[in-house]
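Re: Re: ligand-bound prediction request (bumping)

Still looking for help on this. To restate: I need the protein modeled with calcium ion bound, output as structure tokens. Inputs repeated here so nobody has to scroll up.
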Amino acid sequence: MNNKRKVIIDCDPGVDDALAINALLLKKDIEVLGITCVGGNRPLEYTYKNALRLVDFFNSDVKVYKGVEPLSIDPNIKTSFFHGENGFGDVEIPYTTKNLSDINAIDFLEEMLLKYPNEVEILALGPLSNLAALILKNSKAFENVKAIYSMGGTFSMGNITPYCEFNYYFDLKALDIVMNALNKNKVVFHMFPLDVTMKVYFDVNEFTFLRYEGGKWGNLVADIFENHYLVKTYQAIGKTFCVLHDLVAAMYMFNSELYDEVKPVKISINYEGEKRGKMSQEHGDTNIFVHKEVDSYKMKEAYLAINYDEQVIKKYRNLNKS
Ligand code: BDR
Ligand code: CA
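Reply:
Sorry for the wait, this slipped through. Here it is.
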């Protein structure tokens, strides 16, 4: 028994998922109950192996659970574009299956939520398919979730269609199921759409810093980001940086003071026509909170401080002075 916050990471690693998973595995004041994987950035067969790579890298004994492929996929989406064929920028990283559970992610979520009602927080970094599958299996268990922090959606420009963000668009059926469930119960849902995540990125200077000051982990981060994501971002939008989407959702869990204070909103989603997947929001008596602002620099510093001592952080501050 301990009094630590209990968290499940539901993810599709994915290079930016890797930073979020890293932050949570190293945080001393939380207990990661498990990592549940979903198909998204790459199919499930890749994402769960990448989660295993990370738990091995950090010598963690947190178990990895295989979930579902998205309930509805648009076959035209090429998921390897930003994350590479293997989801980790095609960098070869060994893994073992010693932390792979033979329990299915949906059964595991259900079990934990029934065992710890109103205690479990879920960090959702991919399509909402596992959560939707849980709702379809046992909606009462879903009602026991304390809070969900979800990277997804957009209220401005999209990254997969002009109107939509990848995670939510990739499984609109799951999004619909989750949004309907949220309308019926009081599960707290913090959404981190592109409006806020696009403000947080590591640029080429920061990757160089990580490579030279960041030890083994910093090197791995620079490798997996620079090998593919950086190149593709440059090709797509002519920028030499990588947006850290999933980390933005993760860091809110420990540094909410760096984000905007927001009022609850009601979300509507258009499921028809050319603007399929487009979201809108209005004030409402809900438990849904949409964040659009963060102090990007302080958030990145807080993330680095989870991994590095003050000496390294001082060098990071110097880097940004010039
Ligand atoms: C989201 O999609 C994936 O590419 C990232 O891992 C992030 O979860 C951004 O749209
Ligand atoms: Ca992700």
